[in-house]
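Q: Here's a chain of 167 amino acids. Please give me its 3D structure as tokens.
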Amino acid sequence: MLRALQVLNRVIEKIESCFATVFIGASTLITIAQVVTRYGFNHPLTWPEELCTLLLVWMTFFGSSLLLKKEQHIEIDFFTKLLPQRAQQALGLLNCVLMFGFLVVVAWGAYKLQFFQSRHYTVALGIPKNYFSLPVLISSVAMCFCILLSFLRRAIEFAAPDTNPKG
């Protein structure tokens, strides 16, 4: 079961990575087009700022989810490294529980926000404003899945007897 969850996690990671890459490229091209039309033709477009803001929000939350999957978020572990191995493992489990709880609250808030924001539209693009909070919901759910997987892996390591002889 753990292996199947890991495969699913890698598939989600690849999808997020592809979307983030496309959004970065699109944002770059849209910004270049806006600069050319504004300063080259003295006729600025009205929609690029909104679209680039939307793409930035999506890139930020997909990037955050990707960093969590690759365990590359900033971590201050000075005091944690001073603890014995068993305490470090227990703290890692507690960390997973706390992060999971936080992300459930964030996902629930983003879910409730979807209904409210779907009735309001952006000025230039005319799209529902919930498109701006949708990545919060999607990435929170993806991160919850990743943390659940990490918790299971850590719990298995914690439950396994220490096989490394010391001495």
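Q: Can you summarize the key feature?
A: The chain has one domain: 2-159.
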